[in-house]
Amino acid sequence: MKYLNSISSKSWLIVSQSCLGGLIFGYATGIIVGTLDPIAVKFGLSTVIKGVIVCSILVGALIGSFTGGFAANKFGRKPLLLFTALTCIGGAIGSGLGENVATICILRFIHGLGVGSSSSVCPLMVSEMVPIKRRGIFGSFFQISITVGILIANILAYVIKGDWRLMFCLGSIPGGLLLFVWFVIAESPVYLAKKSRENNNQGSGIEIETQQNEQPNNQSTRFTTIFSKEMRKPMLIGVLLATLAQLTGINAFMYFSNTIFKDAGINNPEIASVALQVWNVLTTLIAIFLVDKLGRRILLFTGSIVMTACDLLIALFLVVLAGSAKGWTSIVFLFIFVGAFEASIGTLVNN
Questions:
Q1: Which end of the chain has a smaller Cβ tally under 10 Å, C or N?
Q2: DSSP calls for 146-172
Q3: Average per-residue pLDDT in the chain?
């Protein structure tokens, strides 16, 4: 017990929970590449229902990421970390054992709640608990781990091809590891200090009355700050970047890569998908170091032009070309697109 207490606030443990959160995010969303076709064959699914299965975890992640910050602020970082671990374990195993499409979608949605909360609490704990000088590089580990999680998902999809139940269930492993970390890790000192101030204020009626007189709309002020004139432009830019990052087509390329490669005439679409994810990891690592050297504005402008050109060319090649020419040109420009995404808006949104 003494040893566990001594490591509860160590930087390597804090970074470990962030890496596990990234792996949960990457694997849970990326494994659909290998499970979608076997599920479609088993249940005879239409294209629309296949899309629903893909989106179920993303909808959960959207809700989880939106509410995660509020939950972490109200209940603490550790409870949200526990929620992430438990929903990962339950959602992954439950999806693997599902006997119908509705059950799979519901459990994937629940899994998504944990995926979304991981994107809120894991990087937050790093920003609050590691030394200031190392927050930049340590903070990037979450994004790197997402790409590694997607890569692992693609590799397993190729190795255990067809066994979609096992693929889903294996997603519980990072959740189990995160649960172990939860037992050991300390609560964020930022949250503890906040709760201490609140408790002290509650114990002093005079202080509370004074604060109310001095700042009668304190709670309202803190909430409405993000809508103030000074914050409108930064908030609008942030929202637009996050929205446009999803509209670039990156999710379609990642989650339907097997289908895209198959339609492009590639004989082994699974291997091509693994190669794409290796490239995704490498370009993410390169992009993290390029951001501070070249500047975000230049990367965003250049990346947007390259991504737009690649989207148009891939669509054109899939329609106009045939045979191996269609396949290889599509692959080349798909790889260029992913590299441009990670070197620009992909890195900007997540850092």
A1: N
A2: HHHHHHHHHHHHHHTTT-HHHHHHHTH
A3: 83
- pLDDT per residue as tens digits for the range 243-273: 777 778 787 778 778 777 877 777 788 888 8
What is the C-alpha end-to-end distance of the chain, expressed in Å? 36
Please give the DSSP secondary-structure letter assigned to residue 46: -
Give the length of the chain: 351
Find out whether 77 and 154 touch, Cβ atoms under 8 Å: no
Check residue 103 and give its pLDDT: 95
The closest of 144, 132, 135, 110 to 21, measured between CA atoms, is 144
Dig out the tokens for 137 from the structure: 């590089």
pTM above 0.85, yes or no: no
Report residue 87 as tokens. Answer: 């929903």
Task: Give the pLDDT confidence of 155-210 residue by residue, as tens digits.
Answer: 998 898 889 999 999 999 999 999 999 999 988 888 888 888 877 776 655 444 44
Q: At what angle do helices 11-30 and 172-184 cross, to 10 degrees?
A: 160
SS (H, E, C) 221-237: HHHHHHHCHHHHHHHHH
In the three-class reduction of DSSP (H, G, I as helix; E, B as strand; rest coil), residue 203 is classed as: coil
In the block, tokens 């007189």 appear at 213
Amino acid at 19: C
d(CA 129, CA 234): 26
Please tell me whether residue 135 adopts helix, strand or coil conformation.
helix
For residue 243, how many C-alpha atoms fall within 13 Å in the half-sphere facing its CB?
6
Collapsed DSSP state (helix, strand, coil) of residue 185:
coil
- Do 298 and 287 form a contact (C-beta atoms < 8 A)? no
